[in-house]
Amino acid sequence: MENFNEIQHIEAWFEGRLTDEQKKAFEKRLHDDADFRNRVKNFEVALKTVEIDGRHDLKQRLQKIHHEVINGKKRTGKLWLKIAAIFIGLMVVASPLIYRNVFAPPDYEKLAMENFSTYPDILSRRSDTPAPDIMLLEAMSYYKNKDFQNASVLFAHLIENDTTGNQAFYLYMGISLLGNDDLQQASATFENIAGDPENEFYDQARWYLALTLLEEGKHQEAGKILEQIVRNKSYNHKKAKKLLRKMK
Description:
This protein is mainly alpha-helical. It is about 75% helix and about 0% strand.
């Protein structure tokens, strides 16, 4: 039980959940106790290994180590034997944080939210944009301040009254709908843009469509789009690659 409580305490420190008093006591022990400092370091190694290798690759690596040890093979490097030992030790004392990061099913909605960010304002900088439109300025102000409900309403009005065929309005409306959790409408908006490969915002729409599908729980459909983004090295392909690793 002592080991279990210690792991919970270490997790709380890494997640920033300790009070100021607890943090001060933790850091003092970290400074004074070499064994404790080593255990905290091991925990950090475990977390970074998950982050760098990804859940799927890590589980495969640990399974390979297990197979080699069982069959008396010695090809596995010392570092990975140490990492495997760290994970086994943490699992023995039932670390919820390690379990969530490695063995629990991914939280797709959380992954979508973590990867969501607004697309930069390009409308205000475009030379072909007509004289400042009060509604556009207001819509962009709401958008930048993450008031997505009002932003989506105003972008819908802009689209309804637009005579120039400005595709950016649709992208910003879709992002605003996604930010406001209007997932069905957001998905329809992004699908409409992504249905035309010639659309200026085709690649951006596919990234946001993948996030929308992920938040809707349609992780297989989202995964296919993300794989295509990585393969084509299109908009946010590096983020897509990292996201795919966390989804496995």
